[in-house]
Amino acid sequence: MTTRTVDTTQELAAFLRTRRERLDPHDFGLPSRRQARRTPGLRREEVAELAGVSTDYIVRLEQGRGLRPSVNVVEALAGALRLAPDERSYFFNLAQQRPRNSDKPATTAAPTLARLVADLSPLPAMLMNHRYDILAWNGEMARLLLDFDTLPPSRHNAMWLCLMHPDIRERYVDRERIVREGIAHLRSAWAAHPEDQVLTDLITEFTARDEQFARLWAERDIAVNGRGRKVMRHPDVGVIAVQFEVLMPLQDPDQRLVIYRAADDESQSVLDRLCAR
């Protein structure tokens, strides 16, 4: 048996019909009509009114006439049809559009992820959002970097620490590369979250206060680093090389789980000694 490739136009049409038909008119406060409804769910004209488009447009979409709705129309229809987050993503994929990032950035750690960070001991681990705010960490990460509780919450930011903190500034052996990679990630996050004023303010602060940041930001490098290597000079135990991995939970895509592992046997010995202190 062979499976045909997806015909996105026809699948989008069928998806819209099924989602319209499953809706209960009473949930929308629609007035009762003397004429009984012959099909379940909302009528096409009702969906059109809720979404702010013409009934003819809904008809053509549901008949698979090859229309490609704009981002604004997809957003409006997703709201009118009360799509769940996973359904909304599916709808945007079928329409070959990219959803706007309308969700507010994570400012606190999801409880299950905070527990996971603690459970990952003895591996150093922390949880960040897209702007590098550090939301949760375990004891091993605090020993490797610093006791984050000694800083005000507004300074729980990995990029700020790398650029501004007097101890962390000198912690990385290859600081130029670390800063360059961080800026390339930050620029990607900035483009994906244009409404995030806190992120914009951070970038403005970094540009004004750090010449290296201003120079590298102007180069417009773009990259999202999901794994890599860092070499650090720890003031108590010496040089430690770590491999890092960044994971994004499906249920909390704005939160990033960062896990460090020793890159070699010597670094593992140094890390064990540090965590045992």
TrEMBL record:
The name this protein goes by in its record: Helix-turn-helix domain-containing protein
TM segment ranges: none
Lineage: Bacteria, Bacillati, Actinomycetota, Actinomycetes, Kitasatosporales
Pfam families: HTH_31, MLTR_LBD
Domain HTH cro/C1-type: 34-88
InterPro entries linked: Cro/C1-type_HTH (IPR001387), Lambda_DNA-bd_dom_sf (IPR010982), MLTR_LBD (IPR041413)
PANTHER family: BLL4672 PROTEIN (PTHR35010:SF2), BLL4672 PROTEIN-RELATED (PTHR35010)
UniProt-recorded Gene Ontology molecular function terms: DNA binding
Domain of life: Bacteria
